[in-house]
Q: What sequence folds into this?
């Protein structure tokens, strides 16, 4: 069975996708404190990366790990929303899914600390 939302092609599909993406960013920013906190961290670290005396490659990695944490948080929030949509009842599989999303974010934040530490101190 094909989704009724899959019918658009070409420029119309791209414009729709951009609108859905913007809606997702807005939903995350308005509804997820963790996402807002990561945006704040990125607002500090990304510009800082351009003022540091590092190579272009190092600068790219510094920025990319920051952006990766935003991506992971968006996916984590999506998993949580989907689980909550299915049921608000406590279930071991729901807990596992949410905990794994949280663990993914812990790994992403650890990567920021590790990479920034290596570049700045190494």
A:
């Amino acid at each position: 069975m094909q989704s009724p939302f899959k019918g658009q092609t070409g420029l119309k599909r791209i414009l729709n996708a951009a609108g859905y993406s913007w809606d997702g960013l807005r939903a995350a920013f308005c509804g997820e404190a963790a996402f807002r906190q990561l945006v704040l961290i990125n607002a500090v670290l990304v510009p800082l990366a351009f003022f540091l005396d590092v190579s272009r490659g190092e600068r790219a990695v510094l920025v990319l790990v920051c952006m990766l944490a935003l991506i992971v948080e968006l996916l984590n929030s999506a998993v949580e929303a989907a689980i909550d949509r299915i049921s608000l009842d406590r279930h071991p599989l729901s807990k596992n899914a949410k905990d794994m999303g949280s663990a993914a974010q812990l790994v992403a934040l650890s990567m920021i600390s590790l990479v920034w530490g290596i570049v700045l101190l190494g």
Observations:
- The radius of gyration is 18 Å.
- The longest helix spans residues 56-86.
